[in-house]
Amino acid sequence: MPDFLSPSEYFHQNKSRPRKRFGQHFLAQPATAERIVQSAELKEGDVAVEIGPGLGALTRFMLPKVKRLYLIEVDGEMVEYLHERAPAEKAVIYEQDALSFDFANLSDTEGKRLIVLGNLPYNISSPLVFRLLESFPAIERAVFMVQKEVGMRFAAAPGSKDYGVLTVLLGIYSKVQALFTVGPRQFYPPPKVDSIVLRIDFGNERPAGPDFEFLRKLVSKAFQQRRKTLGNSLTGVFGLSAGAIKDACEQAAIDPKRRPETLSAHEFLALAGLVRRQTLTGNRL
């Protein structure tokens, strides 16, 4: 098998350039790529999925570590390149948008939870994390490099300006750690922003309470108008009256006059359970 090329080697040989429509910025520092892979703590029996492998910066360090590696790449040119370099007996390559990939089906087929890695294009970072949350419990953990501004939202604390819907949902289903930052000069071509590497460890069991879609709708409604109090922002959600929302807040020991960004993930989970109970008892508008 040919060795993996650096971005400058590849584009010089092919007399081409990274494609802007795919948001391509290729990691060019092998030491950083190896550090990202090490952060996932891969073991021989693991089943790993790499999102957007591109020229194989992470792939080259993942292949020796795992039982099977699934590569999801949307760029057909990169898919052809990966077929030439990744051994077919160990790597399965999908030419597909990761946002449409069926992680739960793959987990069922393999009989194992998945470990997901990737240097994520900035435009799919948040949608992909929502996709992984929808796929719980098929995912064991994920290690991603994302735009620093986006990554800070994933790991934000209650009360901060970065705290929002995705932060809450990640807090319910997982533990997020910000590991280290990566500067623009480590990429080809260099982006205009810093990146950050995150590790997301998903829980072993589904949290007790409403399902993901119910939680997502409730939290999204709460954050639609951040300046409103919780009682005002949630009135009408699932057809519930202001009185029903107030009752649910009081039962959860949450002041309905608080703003949504002050609630912890577990306070949202407790509140969602009580709101769900209100919908079942018919205490609506």
Summarize this, please?
By secondary structure, this protein is α/β, with parallel strands linked by helices.
State the fourth-level CATH superfamily of the largest domain. Answer: Vaccinia Virus protein VP39
CATH class of the largest domain: Alpha Beta
Q: What strand line-up does the widest sheet have?
A: 4-3-2-5-6-9-7
E-strand count:
9
**Alpha plus pi helix count:** 12
Could you name the ranges where pLDDT drops below 50 across 5 or more consecutive residues? none
Structural class label: alpha/beta
Q: Tell me the helix content.
A: 25-40%
Mean model confidence by pLDDT: 93
What's the end-to-end separation, in Å? Answer: 66 Å
Topology as H/E string? Answer: HEHEHEHEHEHEHHEEEHHHH
β-strand percent reads 15-25%
CATH architecture of the largest domain: 3-Layer(aba) Sandwich
Rg of Cα set: 21 Å
Count of domain modules: 2
What composes the largest sheet?
A: 7 strands, mixed
CATH level-3 fold name of the largest domain? Rossmann fold
Oligomeric state of this protein: single chain
Q: What general form does the structure show?
A: elongated
Q: Secondary structure elements and their pairing?
A:
Elements: H1 7-14, E1 26-27, H2 30-39, E2 47-51, H3 59-62, E3 68-73, H4 76-85, E4 91-95, H5 103-110, E5 114-119, H6 125-134, E6 139-147, H7 148-154, H8 165-173, E7 174-182, E8 187-188, E9 195-202, H9 212-223, H10 230-234, H11 242-251, H12 265-281
Parallel strand pairs: 2-3, 2-5, 3-4, 5-6
Antiparallel strand pairs: 1-8, 6-9, 7-9
Question: What does it look like?
Answer:
The protein is of the alpha/beta class and 285 residues long. It folds into 2 domains: 196 residues, 3-Layer(aba) Sandwich (Rossmann fold), CATH 3.40.50; 70 residues, rRNA adenine dimethylase, C-terminal domain (Helicase, Ruva Protein, domain 3), CATH 1.10.8.100. Helix content is 39%, strand content 18%. It has a 7-stranded mixed beta sheet, with helices on both faces. Strands 1-8 form a two-stranded antiparallel sheet. Helix 6 runs parallel beside helix 8 and helix 9 crosses helix 12. The chain is elongated and about 65 Å long.
